[in-house]
Design goal:
The chain is α+β, with helices and mostly antiparallel strands. It has 3 domains: 79 residues, Orthogonal Bundle (Arc Repressor Mutant, subunit A); 159 residues, Beta-Lactamase; 92 residues, Heat-inducible transcription repressor hrca homolog, domain 3 (Enolase-like, domain 1), CATH 3.30.390. The chain is built from 13 helices and 10 strands.
């Protein structure tokens, strides 16, 4: 994408097309650029530059329109090379104040964070709590239901609660279960569920096989827990915001496909899972998204953490013509400030 066309004039014309199309959703013609952006170039010269940008697959013609719109590649070039993100000082203060209002309960905090992401960007907001094995565990409790069934209650260090019902090979008294919980709770400090599972199952092999079998059930099923069963860990806000954009409001099939992705949550969780392993802000533009249902969208994500560990991911989903220079700072700041709140999570009560 180098070449003469992306010298100063080419970059300015591409930036003008992208910024104009983001604002209006209307194809951009040479006269629009001449009038609105004051480059000192004639419409004929701008048309030639736009044609060159189209040859480079950075712009395209929608149907028979005389104007042009950015391609996914054009947006990518804009985001990586041309965009100037908004200053973050004022944004950080606003986000920090809004998070403080909801930090009394972790589920409420994540729910309100997703709504805040939506209200700040006017797109849909996503917040996902990490899978249990990647999270520090604060407390384990066992409750005997009958001779073959036990309720397991896991409380994470960030205040999330998960209940599980497991089948046991032989009847265990409540006293036995309390002793086991006491032993586990004595080893929970600075260990996540995966680490704890490995240590304890190894220790109990050959001594209490019934305990070892039970622990394997408790601690292994989350490690490979199907994404389809993790919908309760994903918080969505502002889905109705998408109806404001003509690319969805005027295309029922596209809107149905998008809402199906929101409803199923599978691909949203998989996408956010990928950002758990990557540092910084991740941007998926249109067809860069591996999931067909969201290839008419762009998704901006970032992970958030606590005490040096990643505990979840958040993001914003919108049309490919989203306001990237607004969304990227919002996602970045929210992830950073939510991490600070999670650092104080030991003091957050669980409801």
């Amino acid at each position: 994408m180098a070449g003469d066309v992306l010298e100063e004039r080419g970059r300015k014309v591409l930036e003008a097309v992208v910024s104009s199309y983001i604002k209006t959703g209307e194809p951009v013609g040479s006269r629009t650029i001449t009038k609105k952006f004051g480059m000192g170039l004639s419409p004929a010269t701008i048309r030639n530059i736009m044609a060159d940008l189209e040859d480079l697959q950075l712009l395209t013609h929608p149907h028979t329109s005389a104007g042009r719109i950015p391609t996914d590649l054009g947006y990518r070039y804009y985001v990586d090379t041309l965009m100037e993100a908004e200053p973050q000082d004022k944004l950080e203060r606003e986000i920090g104040e809004r998070l403080k209002r909801h930090d009394a309960d972790i589920k409420n905090l994540l729910t309100e964070t997703s709504k805040m992401l939506s209200s700040l960007t006017h797109y849909a907001g996503l917040v996902m709590a990490a899978k249990i094995p990647e999270t520090l565990i604060r407390r384990v409790q066992f409750i005997r239901l009958n001779e073959k069934r036990v309720l397991v209650i896991l409380v994470t260090a960030n205040g999330m609660i998960q209940n599980k019902f497991i089948d046991v090979e032989r009847d265990l008294s409540q006293s036995d279960l309390d002793q086991l919980a006491s032993r586990l709770n004595g080893q929970l400090e600075e260990m996540n569920l995966g680490e704890l599972r490995k240590r304890l199952v190894e220790e109990m092999q050959g001594t209490r096989k019934d305990y070892a079998s039970m622990l394997e059930k408790v601690f292994s099923q989350d490690n490979d827990r199907p994404v389809a069963e993790r919908g309760d860990s994903l918080f969505l806000g502002g889905l109705s915001e998408m109806m404001a954009y003509p690319e969805y409001a005027n295309n029922i099939e596209k809107l149905k496909t998008l809402y199906h992705a929101f409803e199923e949550k599978y691909h949203l969780i998989k996408l956010l899972d990928s950002s758990l392993e990557a540092g910084g802000v991740q941007i998926f533009i249109g067809t860069e998204n591996p999931y067909f249902e969201m290839q008419d969208c762009s998704v901006v994500t970032a992970s958030y953490g606590s005490h040096g560990r990643i505990v979840g991911a958040l993001g914003v989903i919108g049309p490919t013509r989203m306001d990237y220079n607004r969304v990227i700072p919002v996602v970045n700041c929210t992830a950073k400030l939510l991490s600070r709140v999670m650092e104080r999570s030991e003091s957050i009560p669980v409801r």
